[in-house]
Write a structure and sequence with these properties.
alpha/beta; elongated; Trp Operon Repressor, Chain A; 2 domains; single chain; Alpha/beta knot; about 230 residues; two-stranded antiparallel sheet
Amino acid sequence: MRIDIITVLPELLKSPFEASILKRSIEKGLVSVHFHNLRDYTDKSYNQIDDYQFGGGAGMVMMIEPIDKCISKLRSERDYDEVIYMSPDGETLNQKMANSLSLVNNIIILCGHYKGVDQRVRDTLITREISIGDYVLSGGELGAAVLCDTIIRLIPGVLNNETSALTDTFQDNLLAPPVYTRPADYKGLKVPEVLLNGNFPKIEKWREDEAYKRTKELRPDLLDND
């Protein structure tokens, strides 16, 4: 998979990809992530990429020209499955969406800033808008990093245990069951006996029951989506 991220702050984005699972996935050649500084695609003085909005109002708007130049250049080099704009009014990111995006080959992610982008960008260049929650960030970079993490960890070979991602919270519209490790008894706090007896069918049944129980107690709305 190839991910191209368009941003005005590439330095803000690089750190998450230089450690842990994301770093290893890149080193293994399972994914390549490329950062594109939008200021490299403007002819304006002082590398300007934003301007006042027509009609007045507070906040600057990212101009269409540099965005169009950057996306057009990338599209001239390869085909892209999605051109995503990180926006608070986009589709809310969920596990089903991450699963779907993990199967594609190439995506572009545009990080918004200031008051957002010229609407013509959204109307003509973007194929999908995604939000990571009902709140507003200073820019789309942190949202892009979250989106990439959710996608990349699902790519086969990224996680050491291939079944790990399949048992994550939300994979079946259920929260994950409780997990325990050694010691089995800590200050009288004991691990459930079923997990210690080696009866794997019973263990799986216990996990399924606990997942359903936790979901019903904490996120009953997920059960309504079945």
